[in-house]
Design a protein that fits this description.
about 130 residues, mainly alpha
Length: about 130
């Protein structure tokens, strides 16, 4: 019969997002002894957000062309950096029916198997459900 030999060295190459899970897995099996050598910038992969930045820039360029073609002015952006809430979108131009969206979201969460749903819409949902 063959006798397994202990591993002397294993080198893992993985994404930064998977490093924590891999470290925990190796630690559980008592085989975690990381090499702490320094890397140069040329050895590191490209920045993870680079593809998203390029996609955003391309989308923005296309949108600017559409605005220019139809002689539209781009909408003013609120400089506060706060995300737009559903209430704000519902109030603007009647874009959304807030009650329908609220109930659809909560129903989908319930259908997905949630036993309990905590929401900022609790009072509104109670009013809708009680008629």
């Amino acid at each position: 019969m063959f006798t397994p030999l202990p591993m002397q060295r294993v080198e893992l190459s993985l994404l930064k997002d998977d490093a924590a899970a891999a470290a925990l897995l190796l630690a559980r099996h008592g085989a975690f002894n990381p090499e702490t050598s320094a890397f140069t910038a040329e050895q590191l992969p490209e920045q993870p957000g680079e593809a998203y930045r390029k996609a955003h820039d391309q989308g923005r360029a296309h949108l600017d062309k559409i605005f220019a073609h139809y002689e539209l002015t781009p909408p003013e952006v609120d400089g506060s950096g706060k995300p737009v809430t559903l209430d704000t979108l519902a109030a603007r131009n009647g874009w959304l029916d807030l009650e329908r969206i609220m109930m659809e979201v909560l129903t989908s969460i319930r259908r997905a198997g949630a036993d309990l749903v905590l929401t900022y819409f609790a009072k509104r949902v109670a009013r809708v459900l009680n008629g």
